[in-house]
Design a protein that fits this description.
The complex is a heterodimer. By secondary structure, chain A is an all-alpha fold. Chain A has 12 helices and no strands. Chain A has one domain. The two termini of chain A are about 40 Å apart. Chain B is elongated, with a radius of gyration of 20 Å. The chains are: A mainly alpha, B mainly alpha. Chains A and B meet through α5, α6 and α9 of A and α1 and α2 of B.
């Protein structure tokens, strides 16, 4: 029963992960018109689906970076299995709910926060509540980059800066190189460049992010005694996770796409090309070197960099500031939700506790959805002007929320 | 603070690799576009108004496509890397040219 709730919550998280991160790959292509909004989300969805299937490598130790609920082989800690694994399942469920709630709230506000941070934050919070301070792997053991500091905090600070620098250099040089070329040549060329680089980001996202959920579900299955192999992931888990992230991506987090594509910088094709290439390169280079990082941070850094590198472009630093503030509170905020969920579940106890916090999750999801319908952002108005300028030559437009 | 050391050590390598691939390839792509325009001549390039552009230069077209080919190679390398790491393999640059090895 509790296991089923964990699986559903994990897939639901995967789904929110998908629509939260569509923007990372596709925001610039949609903003410049390189791809029609619907075509862009379809492409991203399919590539995420493919990417998720490509990640056959065992991702079972995903939680080890931040919390101590698994051994180094990926098997759950024996002391957590005393009660049919319910202690571990409750931590995982509460952590997932923390991550989902944070993802939904930031989506409602159109803020691109990191889904990995939300998941890790939720897990950390639930672990602190359940196992105490020492249950968290804060700093690793000193032999390699590890722990909350090494795997989450430091990459979060460094990766947007690196991506931004690369995108700024790229944008500036491309601008100089193509200054004397007629627009009909550059527009067509950059269009294809954008589509190609955005596709790479989508594929990389599918391989990276779907894995995390697969690892979490498999961990829960092992804890409940329904799976014993720590080297492989059940096929149905793989299929379900791939579908969840693909569908989520296809749904498109239009609010976030809008913020990244229009809100931060008015993206021009050459900036889009430079930003997406920088994102793709940073993501691939760091995963080659074993760095865990957030696609969201990289994509945002790149877009900012593209804005800085283009002479005469305007960067809305207030929007950027709000994003950075969101990043700072993502980990603790998701953690608080995770911890509160664990306490509620623990106080009520047993399956009933798990059901109650799951109901809280469903209620929050519905509430956020209902709230979002008041000022919908979809593929029709995703590219509308960011600043509502009064123009008298225009018909009344679809209202677009500016308080994103 | 050992984590900071590891992170900074990795960071400059990521920065270097990303500058080459993430900025270098798009710049090459832009050079390709410029080269195509230069090769096409006429109004493919920006001129002062009233001045007609030069006649086509085929060498520019060839150079342009050569640039695109290199960029495409880079993209293929990227996809290979994603797929390979998905199957527990890694790209090795030990022999300069990339080879797929077991992790």
């Amino acid at each position: 029963m509790v296991l089923a709730l964990v699986v559903v919550a994990a897939l639901w998280f995967d789904f929110t992960n998908g629509f939260h991160d569509t923007a990372n790959a596709m925001a610039t292509s949609i903003a410049t018109g390189a791809l029609k909004p619907k075509a862009a989300v379809l492409l991203a969805g399919v590539l995420n689906l493919i990417g998720a299937f490509l990640s056959v490598q065992v991702a079972l130790t995903v939680t080890n970076a931040v919390v101590r609920i698994q051994g180094s082989t990926g098997a759950p800690r024996p002391e957590l299995l005393a009660d049919g694994g319910s202690a571990l399942l409750l931590i995982v469920l509460a952590g997932l709910i923390g991550g989902i709630v944070w993802n939904l709230l930031t989506w409602l506000l159109g803020l691109p926060s990191s889904s990995s941070h939300a998941l890790f934050g939720g897990l950390i919070g639930a672990t602190i509540a359940g196992l105490g301070w020492a249950g968290v792997n804060w700093n690793g053991d000193g032999s390699k980059l590890d722990g909350v500091v090494g795997k989450v905090l430091l990459p979060a600070v460094l990766s947007p800066v690196i991506a931004g620098a690369v995108a700024a250099v790229g944008t500036w040089v491309i601008y100089r190189v193509t200054l004397s070329v007629a627009a009909r040549f550059t527009d067509q060329g950059f269009r294809w460049g954008q589509i190609g680089s955005a596709s790479l980001v989508s594929l990389a996202h599918g391989t990276n992010d779907a894995q995390k959920t697969m690892g979490v579900i498999t961990l829960a299955l092992i804890a409940a005694g329904d799976w014993t192999d720590t080297k492989n992931i059940p096929l149905w888990v793989k299929v379900a996770c791939a579908l969840a992230i693909g569908l989520g991506t296809y749904l498109g987090g239009w609010r976030i796409i809008r913020t990244l594509g229009k809100g931060l910088v008015e993206i021009a094709p050459r900036q889009g090309l430079a930003a997406q290439s920088a994102s793709a390169a940073v993501i691939l280079a760091s995963s080659h070197l074993g760095f865990a990082l957030s696609t969201t941070h990289v994509a945002t850094g790149s877009i900012l960099g593209a804005g800085v590198g283009q002479p005469g472009a305007q960067v809305r630093w207030r929007v950027a500031g709000r994003m950075v503030a969101t990043w700072l509170i993502t980990l603790p905020a998701a953690g608080v939700v995770g911890a509160v969920m664990w306490w509620i579940g623990h106080l009520i106890g047993g399956a009933a506790g798990a059901i109650v916090i799951f109901v809280v999750l469903v209620a929050t999801s519905v509430a956020v959805y209902v709230r979002s319908r008041r000022a919908p952002v979809d593929h029709n108005n995703v590219n509308a002007d960011w600043d509502p300028v009064a123009r008298d030559d225009e018909q009344p437009r679809v209202p677009v929320p500016t308080a994103s | 603070m050992h984590n900071l050391g590891f992170a900074l050590d990795g960071a400059w390598r990521v920065l270097l690799a990303s500058l080459i691939l993430g900025a270098g390839l798009p710049v090459l792509f832009a050079l390709g576009i410029r080269s195509l325009a230069w090769g096409a001549g006429g109004d493919a390039e920006v001129h002062e108004s009233g001045v007609t552009g030069p006649t086509p230069r085929p060498i520019g077209t060839v150079l342009g496509w050569a640039c695109f080919a290199v960029v495409l190679l880079g993209v293929v390398l990227g996809i290979t890397f994603i797929v390979a790491s998905g199957f527990g393999k890694a790209l090795s640059f030990e022999h300069i040219y990339p080879t797929i090895v077991n992790k």
